[in-house]
Amino acid sequence: MPQIPGHEGGPLIEGNAYLDHPLFWPVHLGSCLRGEDAQRAAFGADWDAAMELYRALSADREWPVFSVPLRSGHTIYVVYRNLGGDQGVDYLISHPTWPVAETLAVDDGHFMGPGAAWPELLSAARQPAQEGVGDTDARLLLLFPTLGDARLPDDAAVPLTAALAALTLIEEPAEVAGMLLENQGQWEPAHWRLADGVWINDGGHSYRNPRNAFALSAGRLREISNALNGEEGQPHRASR
Length: 240
Hints:
- With 240 residues, the chain is of the alpha+beta class.
- It has helices spanning 24-28, 36-43, 47-57, 118-126, 136-143, 157-167, 173-183, 218-229, and strands spanning 12-14, 63-69, 75-83, 86-94, 102-107, 192-195, 198-201.
- The strands form two sheets. A five-stranded mixed sheet has the order 1-2-3-4-5, covered by helices on one side.
- The longest helix has 12 residues, at 218-229.
- The protein is globular, with a radius of gyration of 17 Å.
- Residues 232-240 have low confidence and may be disordered.
C-alpha cells in the first residue's frame, strides 16, 4: 500500500495497472475535455467503456495512487480521492524530510490550482525515474491537469500530441491536444513570473500565488519551484 505522509485517510492502492488502459487517459483528462466536441474527439465510440472504467477508478473501496518521482528527491502523488460525497483527484508533493505532503492542485468541484507552468510540466515529465511512473508521455498526461499557463509556447501541442498518440486510441490526437491546451485546468490560466529565484503565479485559486492567504510557505514555494524545474536553485526559463 502506498504511503503518503499526512494522507492516511483512505485505502490507497498502487494505480500503475491502469496506465496500460488506453481509455484511462481521456478519463483522467476529463475535466480538461469540456464540451461535446472535446468528449466526442477523445472518447469516440468508447463512451460506455470509459464510464465503466471511471466507475472502477472512483470506487470508494480503493483509491488509486500514481507516483512521479523527481530528480530532487521529491515525489508528486496523483491520488484518486474516492471519499463519498467528496470525490476528486489530489496532486500532492512530498519529500522524505517533510512531515506531511503539500498540495499542488486539486481537480474536483472545489478545484485549487494551477500547480504548474508549462515549462515545469515538461521538466517534471522528462526527469528520469527508477521507481513509480517513469515513462515521459505517461508523466506528462498524468500531471497535465495541474497546468495553468497563460503564455504557452507555440509548439506546446507537439509533445502533448505525441503523448496522446503513444498512449491512447484517439483518432485525432493533435485536435485533442489543442482542445486540452485551450481549456487547461478548471481555473483561469495564470501568469507566471520569477520572483527572487522562485516561480510564482497570479492565480486566485493557486497555492503557488504568495498573495493568497492559503499559499504555501516561502520555503516550500522555493523548494517546489526548484524541484519542478529540475535543478536546485536554478529554475529554468519562463513560459513564453
